[in-house]
Amino acid sequence: MERDAALADFDRARAEWEAAFARVPDAALDYLKPGDDYALGGLQVHVNWVLRNYLSLLEAIVDARYAQIQPEVDRAAEKEALVGANRGLQGAERQPVLEAMSDLHAKVCAAVEALPEADWARKAPVIYGPGQDALPTSPDDVLGWLRDHYREHVVQSADLIEDWRASSTAGG
């Protein structure tokens, strides 16, 4: 996808997610469906973690000038994000996490816009885990993953709202 079109779709995907998350009642922000890892409000915590992580990946690819990299994941921050995603949110936490998403989204956009046009689809060999082969990864790929990620949680949040309503009606 051409860079400007990809950025516009990235913005649309974020807007779709924001609209979906706005439909989550405050009372449901800490709802955790049995067997799930992310509470309903925790989806926003998770979205922010993924934005932060992929922004770091994008920056690492550019900083390495498209040479092979094996990005480091901040395990303490990852654990904190997993705990927060599982715990969910309280109503007063909604706005700060949305503001954090807005900031991260803008940083991803700025990083993409700063790229020379020739580097948009340029692939870098990225090793995502110990013992894995390098996966050719471009800024276009990273932005595509982020767009898909926003949209994945649009559907998931709607399903979880219905589960929360059903469990609330059932007295559970």
Fold and architecture overview:
- The chain has 172 residues and is mainly α.
- The chain has one domain: Four Helix Bundle (Hemerythrin (Met), subunit A).
- The protein is 62% helix and 3% strand.
- A hairpin with an 8-residue loop joins strand 1 and strand 2.
- The longest helix is centred in the C-terminal third of the chain and has 31 residues, at 139-169.
- It is globular.
- The mean pLDDT is 96.
CATH fold category name: Four Helix Bundle (Hemerythrin (Met), subunit A)
Rg (CA only): 17 Å
What is the percent of helical residues?
55-70%
Q: How many H/I helices?
A: 5
Task: Give the strand tally.
Answer: 2
Structural class call reads: mainly alpha
Report the order of strands and helices: HHHHEEH
**How much of the residues is beta strand, in percent?**
under 5%
CATH class: Mainly Alpha
Strand order within the widest beta sheet: 1-2
Integer count of domains: 1
- Envelope shape: globular
The CATH superfamily title: dinb family like domain
What's the mean pLDDT score?
A: 96
Euclidean distance between termini CA atoms: 46 Å
* Uncertain runs: none
- From the coordinates shown, what is the CATH architecture? Up-down Bundle
Tell me about the largest β-sheet.
Answer: 2 strands, antiparallel
